[in-house]
Structure formats: structure tokens, C-alpha cells
Amino acid sequence: xxxxxxxxxxxxxxxxxxxxxxxxxxxxxxxxxxxxxxxxxxxxxxxxxxxxxxxxxxxxxxxxxxxxxxxxxxxxxxxxxxxxxxxxxxxxxxxxxxxxxxxxxxxxxxxxxxxxxxxxxxxxxxxxxxxxxxxxxxxxxxxxxxxxxxxxxxxxxxxxxxxxxxxxxxxxxxxxxxxxxxxxxxxxxxxxxxxxxxxxxxxxxxxxxxxxxxxxxxxxxxxxxxxxxxxxxxxxxxxxxxxxxxxxxxxxxxxxxxxxxxxxxxxxxxxxxxxxxxxxxx
Length: 282
Ligand SMILES: [Zn+2]
What we know:
The chain is α/β, with parallel strands linked by helices and 282 residues long. 43% of the residues are buried. The longest helix has 26 residues, at 217-242. It contains nine helices and 13 strands. Helix 6 (188-198) packs antiparallel against helix 7. It is globular and about 60 Å long. Bound molecules: zinc ion. Zinc ion (ZN) binds next to loops. Residues 66, 68, 154-155, 173, 182 line the site of zinc ion (ZN).
């Protein structure tokens, strides 16, 4: 399955990853430059094609919503073009700490990328903010807000981006729609805390880190609430495994039934359970 390029508003385009793969967002300014939000080196051709098809002459800024490889691994590619890369201090610190090992592990299945991109390596953001910052391009005002409650929610860098002129909110991986989330790098209680203020946010269009974009604030709130309830339910069930009240299998079944029956990426359920119980990645 291929990605879909969706026009979200007059100047916003989202590359919606197939089957819940990572979304990338392009905000096009009136001079043809663009702010690009997240990019994965494994899917750089899709990103470049989207920039071309949407008529963007150049990327003015790259923004990392958080530190995970599928959102930051193309930093190298854009840094080579002298494009400034924005991220939260939380994202930067997480990349400094876990980035090198994570980068090598994620590239192991695709060693050819080292040949295609000579010198390919973990590349840190170079414009870093603590709580909030603003980015401007002609006709574009973006507010970046750090939202990782207690420094660690879905990730340590969780940032949302709000495009004022067209009222579009990019939620990063604090929100997954229609697919099971990746929870094992996260802190679920903090993630629940981080979601609460998002119930009250204002926007016309909402773009999650994974899954389809959402039309309207009412539908968006329902998705944020659903995300919250999923995580709360899952966390309660992990406690039940730990205390011996439920087996892993029972919990895995529960997370794929009822309200969750139709969610995609079901393979994440078992991985989320296993990672939490073993504390190991993969
Ligand atoms: Zn993530």
C-alpha cells in the first residue's frame, strides 16, 4: 500500500503513512517555501515527492515532533541542505541519550541507506526550545508547544504544532487514530496527563502521528478521548498481569475486542505488553 498525500487545508498537506505508518506534514508558505514536520530517511522519496507534487520550492524548516527514529531519521538529509531543525529540549536530550543505539538498530535492516546517503548518522536538532516557540514563514505562524508531562509521555520530546492562519493542529504521537499505538517507549500515566489539555484545544483540522487525519474539533476531541481511554484501560490491564489477576493472553485478547476490534496494527498489542513486562525493546 502506498502513502496518501491529503490536502488538509489550503496550505497544509499530510503524507498519511499506509497502514498506520508515520505521517509527515507539509505547511506551505505563500512564497513557496515549506515547514516540514517529521521525516523518516527510509521514506525520504515519499517526502520529496510530496514536496514536489505540492509545489514547494524549498524546505525552510524541519520540525521534529519527538525523538523517535521514524520522525527524526531524515534530520541528516535536511541538515546537509543547511535547513534548520527545530525540536524541544526534551527531544534533544533523548536523542543524545538513546539516539545512537536506536539509530543503528533501526538501520540494521536497511544497510543500503548508508551507501545511498554517505555519512548517514544520527543528526540532532539545532534549534531547541524548552516550553514553546514560534516559527514564521510568509503567511504561516506555527506555535510549537512541549507537552510531555513530567518530561516523558509518549516520548520525552512530545511537541504539538499549531498553524494559526488555518487552524490546524499536528499532534505527533500523542495521538494515534484507527491504529494501536506504540506505548513501550512511553510513560502511560504521564501520557494520560498530557492528553487532558488536548481535549480543550481549538482547531479545524487535526493530524495525528499515525493514522488518518481528523476533520473538525468535535471529532478530534472524541479521538483524543478514545486515545486516553485506551491507554487507561491498557495500563489497568498491565497492572492485572503484574498482580496475576489476568494472563497476557487475556489482556491481548481484550485489547483487540470491543471498542478496539477495528483498530489496525494489531501486532503492536503483543509488543506493547511484552515490552512493558520485560522492559526490553523488541
Ligand atoms: Zn513515536
